[in-house]
Amino acid sequence: MRLFDSHCHISDEAFDENRDALIDEIRASSVALCTDVGSDLATSLKCAEAAEKYDFVYAAAGCHPHEAKDFDEAQMEQIRALLTLPKVKAWGEIGLDYHYDFSPRDVQQYWFAAQLSAAKELGCPIIIHSREAEEDTMRILKDSGIFGRNRVVIHCFSGSAELARQYVKLGADISLAGPVTFKNARRPVEVVQTVPLEHLFVETDSPYMAPVPFRGQTNTPVHVEEVAKKFAEIKGISLEEVAETTYKNACEFYGIEY
After folding, report:
1. 141 touches 120 (CB < 8 A)
2. What is the rounded distance in angstroms from the CA atom of residue 169 to the CA atom of residue 225?
3. Which residues contact 204 (CB under 8 A, 6 or more apart)?
4. N or C: which end of the chain has fewer CB within 10 A?
5. Whole-number pLDDT of residue 132
6. What is the 3-state secondary structure (H, E, C) of 103-157?
């Protein structure tokens, strides 16, 4: 069995003291590939370095909405340059986050649209972060003309099954993480029930949001198997089918041969 953790942050400072052990742990697990996702220029550079260093790691580069207030055109040009590297496979994560509002909403929206435009020119896959900003996220995505042109995934999806259905109809994919395993996780379960397996990815978003039974601990890509197990339980199919299909889905999204 092989799993693809489609969205993690192994370059996060949470792993600085034990990254070698983390890499060994991943290598010994059923996780065959993972994507290390940037949140600003500095982390995107680290992700690109990790992808170069480790054979099973690919990278994404972009500016997260939390960091939008400190982003500028010069940094965006450097992100664009990173996307020319062979193992930097997607622009992301980008989007809107109205839960924390660490950056003003108008600034978030400006850089979300600007990064979509740049990614559209490159034709690269795009990783979307959307939290408590469903209407504006959808509006900006539609206005960008990105659907049907670039591959798009809504990562750590927190919306309704109906919203997921709308995204899939537009050609996007849906990725879910640890919250689908939580005791009172109604909406994520409904999303997995509703969305065809061919449009689903599994992820950890580690070091955040560890799944049951590791909730409250530092999350790692190895725990993506718990997310896949929950998918299998919800859909009434084998873990092996979930693993193989979501592996292929993520490889096709990122343009990785499998």
Report:
1. no
2. 27
3. 5, 7, 8, 177, 178, 210, 211, 219, 220, 221, 223, 224, 227
4. C
5. 98
6. CCHHHHHHHHHHHHHHHHHHCCCEEEEEECCHHHHHHHHHHHCCCCCCCEEECCC
Cα 97 from Cα 100, distance rounded (Å): 7
Superfamily of domain 3-254: Metal-dependent hydrolases (3.20.20.140)
**Which residue, chain included where needed, has tokens 């972060």?**
129
Helix, strand, or coil (residue 55): coil
Give 178-224 pLDDT, tens digit per residue: 999 999 999 999 999 999 999 999 999 999 999 999 999 999 999 99
What is the rounded CA–CA span in Å between residue 59 and residue 9? 10
CB 176 within 8 A of CB 192: yes
Q: In what order do the strands lie in the sheet with 152-154?
A: 3-8, 31-37, 57-61, 88-97, 126-131, 152-154, 173-176, 200-202
Domain parsing of the chain, residue ranges: 3-254
Model pLDDT for residues 69-107, shown as the tens digit of each residue: 999 999 999 999 999 999 999 999 999 999 999 999 999
Any bridge partners for residue 99, and if so which? Answer: none
> What whole-number distance in Å separates Cα of residue 181 and Cα of residue 227?
7
Distance in angstroms (rounded) separating the CA atoms of residues 173 and 98: 22
Token digits for 89?
């496979």
User: What tokens appear for 66 in the block?
Assistant: 């939390």
